[in-house]
Amino acid sequence: xxxxxxxxxxxxxxxxxxxxxxxxxxxxxxxxxxxxxxxxxxxxxxxxxxxxxxxxxxxxxxxxxxxxxxxxxxxxxxxxxxxxxxxxxxxxxxxxxxxxxxxxxxxxxxxxxxxxxxxxxxxxxxxxxxxxxxxxxxxxxxxxxxxxxxxxxxxxxxxxxxxxxxxxxxxxxxxxxxxxxxxxxxxxxxxxxxxxxxxxxxxxxxxxxxxxxxxxxxxxxxxxxxxxxxxxxxxxxxxxxxxxxxxxxxxxxxxxxxxxxxxxxxxxxxxxxxxxxxxxxxxxxxxxxxxxxxxxxxxxxxxx
Length: 304
Fold this sequence. Notes:
Layout: H1 2-28, E1 34-36, H2 37-40, H3 44-53, E2 61-63, H4 64-67, E3 72-74, E4 94-96, E5 116-118, E6 138-140, E7 160-162, E8 182-184, H5 194-197, E9 203-212, E10 216-218, E11 224-226, H6 234-237, E12 246-247, E13 252-254, E14 257-260, E15 269-276, E16 280-290
């Protein structure tokens, strides 16, 4: 019994030691010894791409030295759901992951050589893993579900940033990007263009901004005022753009507010639009709910 107990303890210690070694290898971002490609890259489609780069099959073993030879790969439209394993591509400088199903970017966070990254058309919401990749020069994030880009504020080497068709409201982070010369942010909800408009040498495009405000409840017999619907940046630099180009439902503009005096027709939304040439336009949409208004109780007079 004692011998069996010692054997079990020995096996447990061996397993613990092996697990610890694997954890250390993973934490250090390096493969120790050899490991099969499909063990390193859990997504089968990504494993196929990496195997192809190395002229191997996905069941072949690979060393860290071999992974270090991969500086670029193209994996667009590959139905990739996980990029786990990419953290071991220590010399990766350029990668195209356009049109996949990627959510988690954490495997990218320690890639110190990465300069060009295409993540268009994925399912990305969180950008924090990119916050310290200060080597990035080109970052493409079109057609995701990103609402907050503040994590990018330290990417001071960025030259090109594409964030079209997301849910972005604030782009103040670009104020820190002194080398940025191209920003595309069409189809978002941005109201403050000041950070990029201050940069005369920068080229930007921010068309079709649509901002949905929180619904409000109003009395259809009373007036409603939208306070300060001013496009910051555009209006400061171009006073002629202070006035909205269009106002729905008979609203009247009197700087700096818009007033709707009669909502008896009970429109579901009221809207105002701003435009600045072919670079920027914004529509603000205010959904409305209506209070029930009691009808006046008029008593019929009886004939005497």
